[in-house]
């Protein structure tokens, strides 16, 4: 009810609450991944590209409707200390034995969850379940995209510990919305992944290595901009909202030296690779024999009792 009242009566809204990778970006990278698939797969995926694109954001919507969904989108590596990647078992059963499932879920289970989604997609190919293939492909693309976002790997996920609240949405939504149209995001053909579980952890490790630059560059750049230069106001859906200014956004993207573009390209490539690998591991079934019916639309009803963090 509180959120409802804010939307009705407050004339200026501040877009500081992040939405993972941004609806725009998740949809874009899922769509682009389709074009990297081999001929045998693209004949099935391309007619369904609208479904893959539009349903890329369903996991985010599910966070507010399904208990246990939110922790699938991140992992707070720094909770486990500087040696997190050496301490954390890469395999779920070993991790549960060492830390307990409750503890793991409390600090995010992103890479393990993405792997389980990959296994489920493989099973869907094996059983020729077209609807499940489409749904799980869209979901897997979302989870892989999240794992390539640096701020999905840290306790300081929205700059709340460093007086940088809003940086999460800034990095993954505002910058791509203004600049992604100019990114050359073609990544070539999909490749088979020999060790998919470890590939997910390698992506997390690479993303986490960028956390310091994501935060420090924004903080340093802020010193050169007054508040009225750093922020501006835009009209969205008949509301006036405060956003990071175009000038500050462009300066930040430039200082990051194409970091966001690289992470987006990595996401597109990984998504295509994982879809392809699931198909190969399922025995490369002939997708021309599969049903061409569109996947069913998922009905997601928000549950006000579910509390999730802005991650």
Structure characteristics:
three-stranded mixed beta sheet, 311 residues, P1 Nuclease
User: Which strand-content bin applies to the residues?
Assistant: under 5%
The count of domains is 1
- Strand count, sense and closure of the main sheet? 3 strands, mixed
Main-sheet strand order equals: 1-3-2
Low-confidence stretches: 1-20
Q: Give me the CATH architecture, please.
A: Orthogonal Bundle
Give the structural class.
mainly alpha
- Helix percent band: 40-55%
Radius of gyration: 20 Å
Query: Globular, elongated, flat, extended or rod-shaped: what is the shape?
Result: globular
The succession of helices and strands, N to C, reads: HEHHHHHHHHHHHHHEEHH
Protein name: S1/P1 Nuclease
GO molecular function: hydrolase activity, acting on ester bonds
Organism: Algoriphagus aquimarinus
Structure in words:
There is one protein chain. With 311 residues, the protein is mostly helical. It has a single domain, classed as P1 Nuclease, CATH 1.10.575. The protein is built from 16 helices and three strands. The protein has a three-stranded mixed β-sheet. A hairpin with a 2-residue loop joins β2 (231-236) and β3 (239-244). It is globular and about 60 Å long.
Care to give the gist of this entry?
Helices cover 54% and strands 5% of the residues. With 311 residues, it is mainly α.
Write the layout of secondary structure elements.
Elements: H1 2-9, E1 12-14, H2 22-34, H3 39-45, H4 49-54, H5 58-62, H6 84-87, H7 92-99, H8 101-106, H9 110-126, H10 130-147, H11 167-179, H12 196-208, H13 211-222, H14 227-230, E2 231-236, E3 239-244, H15 246-255, H16 259-281
Helix pairs in contact: 2-11, 2-16, 9-10, 9-12, 9-16, 10-16, 11-15, 13-15
